[in-house]
Amino acid sequence: MLLPHVGGQLLWLIETKGFTGAPLLLSSIFTSFRYNMAMEVTQILLNAQSVDSTVRKHAEETLKQFQEQNLPGFLLSLSGELASEEKPVDSRKLAGLILKNALDAKEQHRKFELVQRWLSLDMAVKAQIKTCLLQTLSSPVPDAHSTASQVIAKVAGIELPQKQWPELIGSLLSNIHQVPAHVKQATLETLGYLCEEVSPDVVDQDQVNKILTAVVQGMNAEEGNNDVRLAATRALYNALSFAQANFNNDMERDFIMRVVCEATLSPEVKIRQAAFECLVSISSTYYEKLAPYIQDIFNITSKAVKEDVEPVALQSIEFWSSICDEEIDILEDYGGDFTADSDVPCYYFIKQALPALVPMLLETLLKQEEDQDQDEGAWNLAMAGGTCLGLVARTVGDDIVPLVMPFIQENISKPDWRQREAATYAFGSILEGPSPDKLTPLVNVALNFMLSALTKDPNNHVKDTTAWTLGRIFEFLHGSTVETPIITPANCQLIVTVLLQGMKDAPNVAEKSCGALYFLAQGYEDMGASSPLTPYFQEIVQSLLTVTHREDAGESRLRTAAYETLNEVVRCSTDETAPMVLQLAPIIMTELHQTLEDQKLSSDEREKQSELQGLLCGCLQVIIQKLGASETTKFVFIQYADQIMNLFLRVFACRNATVHEEAMLAIGALAYATGPDFAKYMPEFYKYLEMGLQNFEEYQVCAVTVGVVGDVCRALEDKILPYCDGVMTQLLKDLSSNQLHRSVKPPIFSCLGDIALAIGENFEKYLMYAMPMLQSAAELSAHTSGADDEMIEYTNLLRNGILEAYSGIFQGFKNSPKTQLLIPYAPHILQFLDSIYMEKDMDDVVMKTAIGVLGDLADTLGSNAGSLIQQSLSSKDFLNECLSSDDHLIKESAEWAKLAITRAISV
């Protein structure tokens, strides 16, 4: 093979010469390298796409070796392949794809590695690759220039934030004036991808203005080439987040909006669709700037919904759904109390458009497709219209009801199934938003009609939508908070009978009937001793088990829906039905046992088996929680504990992430139910616990395992001690890893608190490792200025985890002679509390935990903490704020903290 030899020569040069003084030598090496490699790389890339698996695997292995042994040579040869017009399209396209994958990855830790790897390459190598990429933009081959666009954007995403490749945007903009249309198209595509990869603060405003000018010019109706116009419209979609300053300028905003609206009228479907996508994005990014344009947009979208092809019509409806989302958020955040100087005023666009918007949406409901229920994930005009109608109902509440009721009354009994289904869908769509007072009288009239339709309507679509609507009625208008009950002793039996009948229907209807039963059961959750469903409990459980064994239970998510409903029926059941739940336990155990016996399965069958195992573990978890919650049933249930644990351990041996997650959660419930007796399972279970904590790839499994460590700590208390070294080592490793998904770190901190609480002063030996980690995480999470909402939400989770750790440690050491070991850490903890109080962005959960930690500190350290708390910058203000909180949990914690602080200060 030539690869390692040529690569070795190149690598030697890079490592020893650094290329700084030898540009000519470098150039000649590249030339000879390219010459030697060209034929070979082309053939390997073609082989990697071969239908012959042996040829393909060999080629993939060769590429992998080349990449590992000589990355610079590998990337150079790929960029050369992509740029060469003599090469086959297939090899060029794959070369570009591999290049792209060498720069970016979905997993954060992998992405970080790839970025570092690129940044550490020699400047001259990178320059040569970038030259090839820019050259490829002029290629007349669409696959080549389109792939190059994406790769350039990935490189820009790495380099522009590092202040590298400053000339890129300038050289792209100079391409815009090229005569060949394909060069212009490729350049606009690149600018679009670049805006997707780079955050707006990396590009200065002057360059943003030039990018937007180029893009908007490319969108103009005068642009004769549709490919160019489409590329420009798609580029604008990505560039909108850069246009803040431009949207603040009336003239520039008017110009951009005019061009977008004109593009929605283009004769080319794809351009119209892309232009409406821009409008959808503008609706959420620049909601507060829309008032002058909203009437024109209504006219454009209304025409598109009525007359245009489906992809365009769907985007037009999406615009109004997006406006609803914005207004729902504003009304929730501000509760409708707007003053003239509110940061985010609500313009009530939906309320104003209501008389014209609702009839337009109702019309779409009649455009159903014959096979829509069978096709999972289907999305069509009728579904989009119904979804938007639901959002409108949530936005305007009662105002929607009089506009929709005439449509329902007119169509609900029509001979054409489309009209009956549309009327039912309209009714189901508006049940969330309006007040129960407004809806209850209507639902009381409609309920019997719906129950009759579910059993008697000849059309499958109508039955499907009827069952879904019944589910919505039970979800929003049934339960302990609803004053006038919809379900009465008079109609309860009929409802149950009809839903159980519906569960025997076609899979899609049966699945929706399960869903309706789910919400019916949930509404009786807080009933206490007796529930109207108690007399039917046995029959309901039996029917649901029958559904899970149906031949066609794999269709329409039916089996999953049946188990989810069974879980909910068990969860919301009363003490009266406990003996029946107890009988259910061995049935589910037997089913799980059977799945573990079937060994010789095809991969498709194994996947179905794993899904079933997950559902059964989930069901056992609910049964364990239900029976473990009461002393009488717990005593009887414990007889099954050994068998259940044995089944879960066998499930772990199957090595499937989803099933592991469900089995872990069930074991957490079992630990809670069995308490200290759980210790006997630890020797066997510990290895799986450790495996879960090490599972960085399937981080959800890792997160669930962390939670189970907490459950086990609460169950075993100091009996967990023999396993603490191993668990603590792994948790601290997890915390310091940049490979583990960040969402797992807050629960790990909480878990440290659980361990400390369980083992008390024995936590001493871990203090020197745990405390510095808590301190550095606390410092990171204290300052959030400039963070977006998502980051603030994560930061609050992190803070809460850190505070729960501190709380567990203080409570664990309380009344121990070793409390003085914590004194050195108190000033830092108080400083952390000060700084998060000053930031003013903590949520209620953090506030409650934080004031609790202040109390724990005073309670555990006594007089040693008193003087420190008195010196603290904000402890007094923070305490007073919590004491006057409307949230009774915060207030309760604050009152306890006040007592503890008073005691500590007065000592």
TrEMBL record:
It comes from Anisodus acutangulus. One of its GO terms (cellular component) is cytoplasm. It is found in: Cytoplasm. Pfam families: HEAT_EZ, IBN_N, TPR_IMB1. One of its GO terms (molecular function) is small GTPase binding. Residues 59-139 form the Importin N-terminal domain. GO terms for biological process: protein import into nucleus. Belongs to the importin beta family. Importin beta-1 subfamily. Keywords: Cytoplasm, Protein transport, Repeat, Transport. Gene3D superfamilies: Leucine-rich Repeat Variant. This is Importin N-terminal domain-containing protein.
